[in-house]
Amino acid sequence: MACPGTFSDEPLTPAGRLFLQSQTNIIIHCILRGKNPIDIDAVKSTLRSSLMVRHPRFCSLLVRDKNGFEHWRKAQVDIDQHVIVIDKRLDKSDNFLDESRRFSSEEGEGDDDEAAVNQYVADLSVSSPLSTDKPLWEIHILVPHKCAVFRIHHALGDGISLMSMLMASCRRADDADALPRMVPEKSAEFKDGKGRDWFWLFGILWGFLKMVCFTVMFVMEFVVSSLLVCDRKTVISGGEGVELWPRKLATARFLLEDMRVVKKAIPNTTINDVLFGVVSSGLSRYLDHRTPNALHEGLRMTGVAMVNLRPQTGFQDLSQLMKGAAEARWGNKFGLILLPVYFKKAGNNPLEYVKRAKRMVDRKKHSLEAYFSYRIGDLVMSLLGSKYACLLNYRLLCNTTFTISNIIGPLEEITLAGNPISSIKVNTSSLPQAITMHMLSYAGRAEMQILVAKDIVPDPEFLAKCFEDALLEMKEAVIGTEKE
To answer: Boundaries of each O-acyltransferase WSD1-like N-terminal domain copy (predicted)?
Structure first.
């Protein structure tokens, strides 16, 4: 299939060049589990008629000129080259099983089956680059597991862009003609502006002062962490070269309703506040299990979080993305913020983790840290080149403990090529950190993929359980308080 339109080679964006460097060569993995067996021909037919193969990034080859500068060059798209079919069943060790073996689950996704898919993706996350002989994406279809794994290079776009691209090829399960919804419809309520007196003006000025102070403080912390200061070493710390270590992948599952119960118990709290509280509690539980009485309370572990810088947080209009509209820009449009998490032994009130997370996140919201981190990377790339921008980004990851992201997924169940989807999970290829966490919500549930260096974190399933138990304990604390 030919890519529509003809024009000269297009240079890569600064972010695209960054993600092609050897130390930051990142591939996004999206795992879709179907409820029914996958029809390979239907998948290929859907791809051929989809907007994805018409998008310039998805039908262009990566080429380098005589000076070594990268460009996108339009090319033919052969769907058969991009669809990789695995007909044999895998076990948890990524070994092929006898075809007669069965797995069982009420939903068709047994523990052994999920573990096998997770291990397959974990192996792909280390030293499995995409071929530059074709556009930088492919789909692995694991037929016995009713599962498809989309592999898309980060140079093509960030999580919001790629999720919007994927959702443009899907339809709602309850309405075959409707695109998935990713953001609830806003209420018609509005404020009439009454009461805007000098108190309101004072609030604006006070907010501006806080923004300036927090921005200066957090941007300085960001630069220092990128160059000089690193987290204290613990049993979950990574470091230089760890991105090449073998990986394991586990999944933590949450109900969004449980998160909302906790969210409502603390005024003005968001789902992200609850998530960071759960991560703080879960990591504390895990460290206390691995190294009992060896760590002091208040030990800081720093997380790197990705923040979408587009005005719209949910599903992006793909037609606007492809046109390059300013408010819905395709590509990589995100900044980074540092999220400190503190070790704390289990106490009487698990909601303290959420309250502390909320205070920290509120300060971050009052700053322009994410915006400045984006501009700093862009400036370093423009002035010093991709080598030094890669070094700056790599040092930041080596000096911190984990990476985390949270993407809003479809509100309702969806179908792809007519097959109802039971779950959607995302993660990326390995980083120098020993732990990376990526959460995506789907139809009232949220699943967080936890990718670990297995020689450092040998039991990611237990770590996932620590996160799940942390949320349940918070929910029980809220219910117990309401009964009183």
So the answer is: 126-274
**Residue-wise pLDDT tens digits, 230-280:** 999 999 999 999 999 999 999 999 999 999 999 999 999 999 999 999 999
Return d(Cα 172, Cα 176) in angstroms, integer: 6
Query: Which of these ranges, 22-36, 44-58, 180-194, 274-288, has the smallest mean pLDDT?
Result: 180-194
The residues near 360 (Cβ < 8 Å, ≥ 6 apart) are: 276, 339, 340
CATH of the domain at 130: 3.30.559.10
The secondary structure element, H or E, covering residue 32 is strand 27-34
Among 173, 59, 119, 200, which residue's Cα sits nearest to residue 427? Answer: 119
The verdict on residue 4 lying in a domain is no
Same domain, 167 and 221: no
> Nearest-CA neighbor of 304 among 345, 269, 338?
338
Residues 16, 38: Cα–Cα separation, whole Å: 33
Last residue of a domain, one of 146, 172, 198: 172
Rg (CA), the chain: 23
Could you give the C-alpha distances from 150 to 15, 90, 153, in angstroms and in order?
Answer: 21, 18, 10
Which position has the higher pLDDT, 59 or 97? 59
Strands 445-453 and 435-442, bridge-based pairing: antiparallel
287 by DSSP, 3-state: which? helix
pTM of the model: 0.88
Q: Give Dmax (Cα) for the chain.
A: 76
Q: Is the pLDDT of residue 96 over 60?
A: no
Which helix (H) or strand (E) segment holds residue 124: the answer is helix 111-124
pLDDT at 6 over 50: no
Q: For 151-176, what is each residue's pLDDT tens digit?
A: 999 999 888 888 888 888 889 999 88
Strand order in the sheet with 435-442: 247-255, 445-453, 435-442, 402-407, 300-308, 334-342
Residue 434, both tokens: 């020993």
Say whether both 217 and 124 belong to one domain. Answer: no
pLDDT tens, position by position, 203-226: 777 777 888 898 889 889 888 888
State residue 444's pLDDT score. 92
Pair 323, 245 in one domain: yes
Question: Does 184 fall in a domain?
Answer: no
Q: Are residues 214 and 164 in the same domain?
A: no
* Residue-number span of the structural domain to which 427 is assigned: 210-483
| Strand 402-407 relative to strand 300-308, pairing | parallel
Which residue in 185, 225, 341, 322 sits closest to 276, CA to CA?
341
User: What pLDDT is recorded for position 367?
Assistant: 92
Q: Check residue 233 and report its DSSP letter.
A: P
Distances from the Cα of 142 to the Cα of 35, 38, 80, angstroms: 13, 9, 15
